[in-house]
Amino acid sequence: MIKKKNKKGSLIIVFLVLIIVVFGSLYVFNEKFRKETGEKPTELDKTDENPLVYTGSVTLAGNVLINSDMWYDTRSGDGVYDFSNAFKLFKENLKKSNISFYTQQSPVGGKDLGMTKNYNYNSPNDILDEMLSTGFNAISLASYHAFDKGTKGITNLNEKDVIYSGVSTKEEDRLKNSIITKNGITYALLSYTMSTDEKLKDTYSVSVYSEELAKKDIDKVKSSVDVIIVSIDFGNVANSTQVSEKQKSVVDFLVKEGVNVIVGNNSYSIQPIEIIDNTLVCYSLGNLLSGHTRIDSRISAVVDFNISLTKEEGKKKIEFKDINVMFTYSYNKDNSNYKVVPFNKITNEFSSYKTYYEKYK
Questions:
Q1: How many CA atoms lie within 13 A of 183 on its CB side?
Q2: Tens digit of pLDDT for each residue in 44-93?
Q3: Half-sphere exposure of 271 (CA within 13 A, CB side)
Q4: How far apart are CA 180 and CA 239, in angstroms?
Q5: Which of 289, 292, 294, 260 minimizes the C-alpha distance to 277?
Q6: Which of 152, 256, 269, 286 keeps 20 to 30 A from 105, CA to CA?
Q7: Three-state SS across 154-180?
Q8: Spatial contact of 230 and 283, defined as CB atoms under 8 Å apart
Q9: Are the C-beta atoms of 230 and 252 separated by less than 8 Å?
């Protein structure tokens, strides 16, 4: 009896060892398979995982509208137009952000299409070179004047790390250059105008706003980006510091569609800045550089802020932090010596700037 018990006990031990070996082998094989295939742990496998947090910085500026006097003022010979003096003081005070945005209100058709005339605008290519040199890497090209020089005036930028939106030479290329990634945050820029000065010959040269088009574009990019910026030329609100019901209606629609930042323009004056349901809305930032004579049309707001993006369990959260505003004045003396002067750098260019600071702050 004793021998039988010993034999039975040995069998049990052997059986237990076999079980340990089998399950141990399965565990080792499973871990090796995960490493080789790059398979990520399932939700059940995760323990105490921290959310991913990314930070970025954004600067938003207003319109650049080049008139014929600026062509003469910046001409330096050999067909070159030098805008460096116009932006020297501004460049020294501009925050260096991951995304720096402005609106090119006048089309950049180049010198071969002739100098700008009032209400039928054109800009030399040199203005883009200067804006890129200043630090801008996001450009809205859809505007009321975007088709002033027809399809020949449509600007295509192929610069590295520069996004633009609003004009195109092909339907399929409308959003081709509208997405960029900085510091782990992916941004999309969509640009529209409510109307154009000249009648369009097609539906893609300039992106004319409609709820259908905006929704189509937003739906196309939203799954692949973190932050959607929409620039919109409101068209018929020139010279108004008040927000119209039409503007509010457009903004409400874009907010509901999930847009994160909305930048309005073509009021030629500064309009309110507010946050609506976690969407930062700048109804109008005014004219950064223009030849307008009204004081309100020569003052602009340059907005900079930080973005915090938190990703956790398949969800993302956007927060705007440290929002700042810098006011600038578009100066000229007798239609020459054009320059953008930050309020904190004004000497004798604009004697009543403190009054306007109080008006807009």
A1: 15
A2: 444 446 899 999 999 999 999 999 999 999 999 888 999 999 999 999 99
A3: 22
A4: 33
A5: 260
A6: 256
A7: CCCCCCCCCEEECECCCHHHCCCCCEE
A8: no
A9: no
Which is nearest to 238 in space by CA: 260, 275, 266?
Answer: 266
The b/e string for 174-213 (b: 16+ C-beta within 10 A; e otherwise) is: bbebbbbebeebbbbbbbbbbebeeeeeeebbbbbbeeee
Is the CB of residue 206 less than 8 Å from the CB of residue 193? yes
Distance CA 154, CA 146 (A): 7
pTM attached to this predicted model: 0.85
Of all helices (H) and strands (E), which one includes residue 341? Answer: strand 339-342
DSSP count for the chain of H helices, then E strands: 7, 16
What's the pLDDT score for residue 84?
97
- Which is nearest to 119 in space by CA: 131, 133, 105? 105
Rounded-to-integer distance, Cα 286 and Cα 266, Å: 7
User: Are residues 109 and 128 in contact, defined by beta-carbon separation less than 8 angstroms?
Assistant: no
Task: Give residue-wise pLDDT tens across range 183-216.
Answer: 999 999 999 999 999 999 899 999 999 999 999 9
Beta bridge mates, 279: 276
**What single letter denotes the amino acid at residue 160?**
K
